[in-house]
């Protein structure tokens, strides 16, 4: 009788490359040592990724979901789940099966940095390897914290925490610190923040550096009001090698408060930005020609679509929506919520009048039930990686525990 472990190498690789779900991959690893070793081989990982539709991570209802997108056809569905059956590949489970409610997620090189809704946990996670590491704060985390995960020129993994508590008008304060996973330590950074970043806008990682949408810091008058129409907007890069923010990088448009701006990555090499003006139905997307910590250049408009004929007078929410694009098909998939923040919808738009909508289901955590503001659906491109989460330098034979 032929055992699975006796199958030829090329046949084993072919079988494993057809496994659609990372959750199934984790189950297969326990089948035999050979399959486990093969699934962790870098060459197989590249072959495995090429066989997949485009994978994205979606945070919805304080959970993370793995989704596949095929721009040549439509959004795939392979599992009938309770919510969004059209797009979900499966629910990502890890973090010691504690199933925490995730409020924020930042993706870098196949690793996820997750902060929990209760503001008590910050966890680095590799879903493909099932590896996690909990990061403890020096004092306490804050609801307005902005996090980013990156690495320096030596591939040392680091976490940025930035807090600008501008809501406390009488006594505002800024906290900027960096955590080194190798040394297991937090350090304060000296930052002259003459700019501000809204905590609900998510940044993204490119080549180990983190990029954010930022704007000129507002000068409040005695009544707490200001005209923001002339407020400068720009990109900011945090360089994890130099451990500092770079210069203001120009955007291809001028925007102000309550206008829609969202960032996305293209193959983790270029940056894309979506813009929709206030009371305008014109959605424009630009892609960079060059993006570095100290320089950026933009192409001409990648996509420009008047969405009124398809969706009516619709304004995508300004508070941190997200999108992905397909350069070959010149399509954009935009994730949004209705005005009551109850239903989530995916809007697929392209040239020559191409459009489609997909209902992603009702959010059980909307404000009428919880009394709190619910974040927008967040998506980011995802590629399984064999990069391991760095552990702190061990003393003697003591081994650090993952959480």
TrEMBL record:
This is (rape) hypothetical protein. NCBIfam families: F_box_assoc_1 (TIGR01640). It holds the Pfam family F-box. It comes from the Eukaryota. The lineage of its organism: Eukaryota, Viridiplantae, Streptophyta, Embryophyta, Tracheophyta. PANTHER family: BNACNNG10540D PROTEIN, F-BOX PROTEIN CPR30-LIKE. Residues 1-48 form the F-box domain. SUPFAM superfamilies: F-box domain, Galactose oxidase, central domain.
